[in-house]
Every structure is written in C-alpha cells, then in structure tokens.
C-alpha cells in the first residue's frame, strides 16, 4: 500500500512537469509566431541606427513602437520601452523576453552598457542574430524534404489501406488463414484503421508532440544528441553547425571585451547539442583552473585537430579573437557543404523507403490473386 502510494506520488510530479513543459513549449511557439525572429532582428537593426545617430534610447524605442505593423509587435516593443523608462538597463528590459533574445545577445548588450558603446554592440547583436537566423533557415530547409516525404508516405499508406485494400480484401475473406503473412498483416491493419481511425489520428499527433518535447528535454538531449552525431551525413551537419556557432560566439565575445570564462559558457549554451555543451563546460572548468583553451580541446574527437592548432597559435600570438573569427567562417562553409551532402543522401533514401513500403502493400494484394489464378488454371 505504502509503496503504491509512493509510486503514485512520484508519478504525479513527473506528469505535472511534463504538462508544464508542454505548456511552456506551446507558449514559446505562440510568442515566436506573434513576433517572428526576423521582426526582432529588424527592430534591433533600427534601434542600433537610431542610437548611433544621436537619439536617446527611450525616444528610439517610442518611435519603433509607433511604427510597429502588428499589435503583438507593438506590445513587445512597448514593454521594453516602459521598462527602460522605469530606470532599468536595456539588457534587463530585454531579458524579460528571453524567448526573443539569446543569452549571447543579452551579454553583448550588457557589455555595451558597461563600456558605453551600446550602439556598436547592438550592431554586433544584429549581426549575430542575422547569422543565427540564416543558419536555422538552412538547416530547416535541409530537413523540409525528408519531412515532406515522410508525411507523404504516411498519407499514401493510409489511403491504400483505408480505400483500396478493403475492396480487394473481399476476395480473400473465405479462407484468410491460407493467405500470405504480409496480406494478413495488412488486412488486420486496414480493419484496425477503419474501426479506430477517428481517435487514432489525434492520439498519434499527441504522442508525437510528447515525444518531441521529451527529446528536447535535458534527459532527452542527453540520450539522443550523442546518437545524432554518429548518424551518416546528418551527424556531420550537426557538428558543423555546433562548431560554427560556438567559435563565432567565442570570437564575438572576446572582441567585445568579455572574459573567456563567460564566453565559453555562452558557447556551450548556443552549441545546440548536449555533447558539445558538455565539452565547452569542461573547457570552462579547465581554463578557470589555469589551463589553456587549446590544451583542453586537444585530442577531443568533437573538435578537429587543425582548429585546435590554430587556437594554440592564436593564444601564443595574442590574436585569438581574430583566429576564432576565421575558424567560424571556415565552418560556415562546412555547414553549406554538410547540408548539400545531407540532402544528396536523404533524397534517394526517402524515395527508396517510400517505394518499398508501397511496393510491399501492392505485393500483398497481388500474391494471393496470383495464387488464386494458379489454382483456377
């Protein structure tokens, strides 16, 4: 009794936390739909121009609020303006909208406030956001084709099982035990879809949403992210994106005057992969204990040896920010190459899988018909 009660009490917080994560994910998605990243980028660019031309921050935000094209965008800018007018720094006002501004953007704005060079830092924020948005669009574009093909394959299979298969299955109802295994399987699956299809679709969508939320949780990333890195083509794409983001953040942060420890923490935050997050966290600990950045990264399979050698050279010559910028540009090119390689592999693979599934269904119909014709002869 007590054990059952304990298990129930443990299961309840888990279910509550899952519901909260789902609610947070939905709220975040809604906010990003209301104020897309492209609009946030445009606001930051305009704010930087106005600030550099001599307008004070409050006036610039007021002008931007008046010219907002949507009510949600106006509310977003208005909230930042009111926070600034209440005496808060711009970085604190922006931190109220962490769904719109990354930790890197907030750190750059805070550095600009501390050094008195906010206009220049806002330009760096805009450059970083533009680059990040561009990378995300490239990756999403690469994933669009396999996602479309997967949805199309599912729709085709459902159509064949629900509309086509029952018409032929009538011919095989007399003695289904003598049918080939694939035919019996698809007949049972067809009956199941027809009988329970009304609730199966929403249940499937809900299960898929819960699976995605679970994958994006810390535990899910800890399980799946190492597997992603080992996948052919897709693993190279993940590595290129993670390294490009991390080295770009390190270069920008060090150029902005931030200390290397804070830069390493931000590099881990934007890497987008749990394994790379652990790498930069370990690197931060080693550097804090007196180690060199290049020595920590040496012989690590997640970082190419050539990049480690260039970082070592930058540390010795005092040009580490410039070297990191060059490494980041190199990995930008590798991202483009990895995307092309991923698409070239996934397109024929998805076509073959879709064709094989449809061919199996068609074959499961033809095999018993062929057997019947042989018996009649």
Structure description:
- The relative contact order is 0.08.
- It is built from 15 helices and no strands.
- It has two domains: 34-130, Type II secretion system (T2SS), domain F (Receptor-associated Protein), CATH 1.20.81.30; 131-377, Type II secretion system (T2SS), domain F (Receptor-associated Protein, Up-down Bundle).
- Residues 1-15 have low confidence and may be disordered.
- It is elongated, with a radius of gyration of 27 Å.
- It is mainly α and 377 residues long.
- The protein starts with a helix and ends with a helix.
- It is 84% helix and 0% strand.
Give the tally of structural domains. 2
Overall mean pLDDT: 82
> What is the CATH architecture term of the largest domain?
Up-down Bundle
What sequence of helices (H) and strands (E) makes up the elements? Answer: HHHHHHHHHHHHHHH
Number of strands: 0
Helix-strand category: mainly alpha
Can you tell me the CATH superfamily of the largest domain?
Type II secretion system (T2SS), domain F
CATH topology of the largest domain: Receptor-associated Protein
Rounded Rg: 27 Å
What's the CATH class of the largest domain, please? Mainly Alpha
| Global geometry | elongated
Q: Which regions have little confidence, pLDDT < 50, spanning 5+ residues?
A: 1-15
Largest sheet: none
The helix count comes to 15
